[in-house]
Amino acid sequence: MSSGLDIQSVREHYRHLSDNELIHIATQDAVGMTPQAQQVIREEVERRKLDTGLLRAVEAQNQEKYTVEQIDYYCQLIRDLDCPACGSTDRLNATMSMEVMSFLVFTHHRKKLHVACPACLDKANNNALAKSVSLGWWGFPWGIVRTIQAITHNVSNKKTNHLDTPNEFLRGFALSSIGQLETYKDDREKLQQVIGG
Q1: What is the pLDDT of residue 140?
Q2: Would you state the pLDDT for residue 1?
């Protein structure tokens, strides 16, 4: 296939998407998009008269490298929001909780990222810890192994919940959500939705 035909196919595909589908692609699924596909999205956003922040989102997701300062800028946008769990105005951060549940020969473990105030992050780690301690041991052999991992994981991650600066979990979340954060950086309500509140 010639590149002209490929671009025309991409153009037709985007033309048939709903606004919400196009917004989703521009804010969350544009990583690795070719310059030609980025141009097609630009044309479609302009044709539909959608928010030009979508174009910044596509560019942000395709920027090759970010400095710590750039990532911390996006973290600051998040840290200034209200806690999505309790509404507190304490500075937000993030944590990863791990919980384990076992049923004789079956052991299930799950990790979950939380963005919230330090008190709610502690609560998330404590809840995962309590669930793992009470329900994790009962599977053989992985229940014991995974439960020990969950205890270590939750206790260790709790230590970063109260940092005065963004922790690595928040930096990772900001980097993975950079398209949405760039698009909605001037819209507090939309940013609140990005973090789940």
Answers
A1: 84
A2: 37
- pTM beyond 0.85: the answer is yes
Angle of CA points 44, 180, 158, to nearest 5°: 165
Residues 167 and 84 in one domain: yes
Q: In which domain, by residue range, is 24 found?
A: 3-61
CB atoms within 10 A of CB 187: 13
Instruction: Collect the ranges in the chain with pLDDT lower than 70.
Output: 1-5, 197
- Residue 178 located in a structural domain: yes
128 plus 91 within the same structural domain: yes
The pLDDT, as a whole number, for residue 49 is: 96
Q: Do 19 and 111 share a domain, yes or no? A: no
99 and 56 belong to one structural domain: no
